[in-house]
Amino acid sequence: MKLHVIKQRNLWWAISAAFILSGLAAMLISWQNFGAPLRPSLDFVGGSRLQLELACAREKTCEQPIDPATVRSVLAEQGLANSSIQVLGTEQDALLIRTSTLNVEQRTELLQALEAKLGKFDPAATQIDTVGPTLGRQIFTSGLLALLAAFAGIMVYLSLRFQFDYALFAIVALLHDVLVTLGLFSILGLVSGLEVDSLFIVALLTIVGFSVNDTVVIYDRIRERIKESPGRHINDIVDEAVNQTLTRSINTTLTTILSLVAIFLFGGETLKYFALALIVGFVAGAYSSIFIASTLLAFWRERTGRAIAQPEPVADGPLDITPSPEDA
Amino acid sequence: MGRQRSLLALILLLAIAAAVLLTQRPLNLGLDLRGGSQLTLQVSPTAEVPEITPEKMESVRAVVERRVNGLGVSEALVQTVGDTQLLVQLPGVSDPAQAERVLGDTAQLDFRQQRQGTEAQLRAEYQVLQGLLVQQANLEINNADPAELAENRAAIERSNQAIASLFDKVGLTGDMLRNAYAQPISGNAWEVGLEFNEEGGQKFAEMTKAVAGTGRSLGIFLDDDLLSAPTVDVKYAETGIVGGRASISGGFDAQRAGELALQLRSGALPVPVEIVENRTVGATLGRDSIQRSIYAAIAGLILVLIFMVVYYRLPGLLADIALVVYALLTLALFNLLNVTLTLPGIAGFILSIGMAVDANVLIFERTREELRSGKTLYRSVESGFYRAFSSILDSNVTTLIACAALFWLGVGLVKGFALTLAIGVVVSMFTALTCTRTLLLTALSVPSLRKPSYFSPGVSNSPSARPSST
Lengths: 328, 470
Known about the structure:
Chain A: One of its GO terms (biological process) is intracellular protein transmembrane transport. The complex is a heterodimer of chains A (328) and B (470). With 328 residues, chain A is an alpha+beta fold. Chain A folds into 2 domains: 224 residues, Multidrug efflux transporter AcrB transmembrane domain (Multidrug efflux transporter AcrB transmembrane fold, Up-down Bundle), CATH 1.20.1640; 85 residues, Alpha-Beta Plaits (2-Layer Sandwich). Chain A is built from 9 helices and 4 strands; from the N terminus they run ααβαββαβααααα. In chain A, strands 2-3-1-4 form a 4-stranded antiparallel sheet. In chain A, α7 runs antiparallel to α8. The longest helix of chain A is centred in the last third of the chain and has 36 residues. The longest helix of chain B is centred in the middle third of the chain and has 54 residues. At the A-B interface, α4, β4, α5, α7 and α8 of A face α4, β12, α9, α10 and α11 of B.
């Protein structure tokens, strides 16, 4: 397989632009609906989430499934009418309730009222999360700060190891990956009510850390090719470098996605969407390294009249190699 | 070959040590995996304490720790996070609501001295209050209408204020109380023992000296509500109760004495705290998560192992061995560094398995290229390592930069993920560069394995690719 990344760059750019624009559109719609570009979970807006399972669920002796209408009427009595209710479990014997922030008394009262109507819950299978609104903001800002810090750190490092324009387009590629992931989750939020929690920020940062790997490997090859044949046009060099590293890009993305698919399938509710975010981000990352970061670099060098580059003096990392006597 | 052999021995030794360590000492599992409550308490400044100093934080922490100990949870953990937050971890707690009530109580405790000439008034007011409290309990049982309840509650509030106005503050506050405990005297009778620090002891002596034998009492107030109003025996009129120890007796049963002691112990917060986050996971739920994560980890590992052998053949097999060593070493490091494994932490580890093979993929792709260009096997392997190095270094450093950003700026679970991923990245560089390389070079010293087709399908055993025999 031989890719002509440069020749068809307008196509690659159009594909990315289409993805990003539809994501941005979804974020705009989300903004109008929930006041945020993605459907936020209680990690960010604060609130209480109670995941409950009837005590009879373990022994499979529950007589009847939980009726959401009963739950709704109990919540309404407690003045929590605008909470979301989900009945879970194969036997419909588990319950997920999301409400505004409840303090201990309110929560105890709610639990007692529910137990009176539905039967006893199993405390060992209960999960209760309460996050105050201020803390949610804190998680959000710290996540955003971490993202910016990671961008800045990567930018500085790549500027030092490569050149400033390499670093710049690596960041553009990263923004691409982040936007694609944000966009898809925004769409999922609109379509299937998927909420993003603090793990999503972790996922974004991991995507940043990982996708830049791909870009760096291709850049590394471009740099090497330039050093070896300084007289060649940047377009040829980029094409060649991309093709030489293509198998590696595919295989690495594949092995990583294999582990992620394992998490997605077996990892349970919370980790599932974390894994999905990573899968989306990593695929976008592999795409952007091959089709965006490198083509933009070539485009830029051509535009600024540096298509035929001067070899740059860059020291390679040291590696202890002792020539073997066998290798005569 | 001597260098290879000793490196191989070292790696083997490390792997065995890691395996032994892992069987001897269980990994530290987070609350989301073993079940329990994790609470974040926010400390806020007040008019009296406009600034939360580290010393104030420390005293808040001490009080919270005491309250936690009062709950009788084993292996509980209280630590300060940032400047104004406390993180409380209660593994396996059975009643998170009780824990929240006890920890989130912002009550302020102080000891006050009754004013002269208010004895009769106190008795009367106290009786009014008791009556109101009984009435309140009755109303609540009978589900009385809200207006009536509110009215009664207001009456209680007024009564409490009236009582509080009969006492003078003497500056003896809860933070001077070192301990309070219930102890039996005889039969069913219990008393509550008190221990003050030095300053508190002196103030207590002065106060008890002033009221001893007068019929006036000293009032113990929690948030301006009278908890107890013991009188002091006349025999202390000369000196007061000195030595910082005292006991309150009189009509307590075990339960009431225990309750008062707990209220006293936990009433010494110098500033109000608020529970801003509570994450409670039931024990079985946590166990399910562990099981699923282990399945995910094993499934991920196996998929990657298979892929490597199928695609890269002999080097792939050696990389697989390195990957298993990697998994052992990383888990052992988690163990040694006391990393608390949380759900995202495990995800970080599983992810690092996928990333760990990246270095090997880079190296093997390079090796293949060199082989195709007609170099000898040995030289191809060596230059595969050499030329892939800068890519491996740069790509891992950028991941580490992202981890560092997550670790320093992230909160809670995010930190755990960053740490496990970073450890994974560092260990993977070691195993890919050292372990795989040593294994490969050792394999090359076995003549029957020296076939380029074991390394790259499609490369023939051309004469130039066959190393000369030693």
